[in-house]
Write a structure and sequence with these properties.
The structure is a homodimer. The longest helix of chain A has 27 residues. In chain A, the strands form three sheets. A four-stranded antiparallel sheet of chain A has the order 1-2-8-4. Chain A is α+β, with helices and mostly antiparallel strands and about 230 residues long. The first copy, chain A, is built from eight helices and eleven strands. Chain A binds a DNA duplex (30 and 30 nucleotides) through helix 7.
Amino acid sequence: MNRLMKPGARERETLLNSGLLAALGVESVAAMMEIAVIGNLPARQILFREGEPADLLHCVLSGYIRVYKLDPDGREADVELYGPGDLIGASVVLDGGRYTATAQAAEPALIARFDLKRVRDIANRRPDLAVALTNALSAQLAKAFASLSNDRLHTAPQRVARYLLAHCTAEGKAISFRLPYQKSLLAGKLGLAPEALSRAFSMLRSHGVNVRGRLVHIGDPEALRRL
Amino acid sequence: MNRLMKPGARERETLLNSGLLAALGVESVAAMMEIAVIGNLPARQILFREGEPADLLHCVLSGYIRVYKLDPDGREADVELYGPGDLIGASVVLDGGRYTATAQAAEPALIARFDLKRVRDIANRRPDLAVALTNALSAQLAKAFASLSNDRLHTAPQRVARYLLAHCTAEGKAISFRLPYQKSLLAGKLGLAPEALSRAFSMLRSHGVNVRGRLVHIGDPEALRRL
DNA sequence: AGCCTTACTTGATTTCGATCAATCAAAGCA
DNA sequence: TGCTTTGATTGATCGAAATCAAGTAAGGCT
């Protein structure tokens, strides 16, 4: 449906805790709240496309947003996956340029949008916003570097193991947890075909990992850490 | 030898044209020049290591700096390669955290270093610096996304072809140009083993590409564009 | 509940690129 | 200049994952 609206109490709350706004002073928060527009997106809705002039900055309030690039013959490569509280780094274009990737709601999602020209005006007056953007982007650059090196250095089961270890409170004990999104999304995030993820999970069974649906049980985290 | 010094006339000139300082107002430029320290690095010198507390921001004045990540058993994966005028995005850590990758001079290089705490202080007072950092990082994030999708969607010869096309003024005519660094570096940048790069070049011979040393001749750019 | 769509798994095949090994070329250096 | 070191090529083998092709499970909807 994608209706547009001013942020209500619930959305303001989520935004305040988001990576971007959490570190801002009250006045900058107010300025950003002023220009925020909330959008309710159905699954598969496109937020912006690679090559379009960039006009809006986006933050995720709920759901997951997939960012990908296309090749000439239409194949897609996921480059980042954003969840609740995340600033969509690919939408930070303050210099009047274009989006360099496409963003799509991977499931029904709530997002906040900010007019980029106005964001730039605020950033030019209020350094705390510009610094917050810098910090968010430098963290995302680090994540992108980690993905790149992960792809190049590790096999599919190793990448899956690392993902599982990173997404459960790293204790020495056995633990269960729930995947936050469907496996095909996870596969894309890890740079794998869904089949490869499936095979990685079944290979990890012999290392104490059991999966049923989105539920994952890790019998021996240490075993995973050793590969 | 790595001697430290204040920037002289030549270094100031290069810095002024660098991506980071070019867009700043005169006062911010002055503030940054004030804290700049020039370093002359021999090949293979490490600028900073993954995991160390981040204390300095780096810009390249001449030469190339390779940024990579290590895996447990010491294998390296290049995640970015910076040349003259580039801000080393991996060194932008304003929040007091640690470096997330290692930077090494790929050849003798001249760099400018800036104390990160002071950079943060300046950025907190002068929005133009913070915005310039944001712009630099968002461009680098776009590059990282491009590398990721390139790795995932294209074969070695395709990646090499795209590199060649991007690094020569995209005309329809035949053209010659010189690789800016050695092939093993290019291989790393493209996520390839040196052998794979070599094989890609010899495969591209049948598509009008001739290589001798660092000299590359492209007979038919259109043929490359078609894969 | 049942149906229908979408997600996931499993198997067989093939392709790509890493790796190992051996030359070959080139570039500093005495 | 020749010598030594480093970088580049070529060949042969191997392994990992993409792709193609069924088939199975799960989830949404009326």
